[in-house]
Design a protein that fits this description.
Layout: H1 2-17, E1 40-45, E2 51-55, E3 58-62, E4 67-77, E5 80-86
Antiparallel strand pairs: 1-2, 2-3, 3-4, 4-5
């Protein structure tokens, strides 16, 4: 009898927990947020937690609130691009 009660408890518990939906939030960034292009070619995150976005108009650092345009120089080479970042 106790096994049946225990099994019913687990079944009810699992059934009630599986109906919860995850909530996701998305925000589109654009020119008004400081990002000059809505087309992103590369995304990376550094050790400090900053997100970096590569666009046709430059490299942008995002700190979670604002975008900052970084001074970069792209040098086209045979079959690749070399990127120089200036602080």
């Amino acid at each position: 009898m106790s096994r049946i009660v225990l099994c019913l408890f687990f079944i009810i518990h699992l059934a009630s927990g599986s109906s919860q939906d995850a909530v996701y939030s998305f925000k589109n960034f654009g020119e008004k947020d400081g990002l000059s292009s809505r087309t992103i070619y590369a995304i990376d995150q550094d050790k400090l937690g900053f997100m970096w976005f590569g666009t046709a108009n430059g490299l942008y650092r995002f700190d979670g609130m604002t975008f900052k345009n970084s001074k970069v120089m792209l040098i086209p080479m045979k079959n690749r691009l070399i990127l120089f970042y200036f602080r």
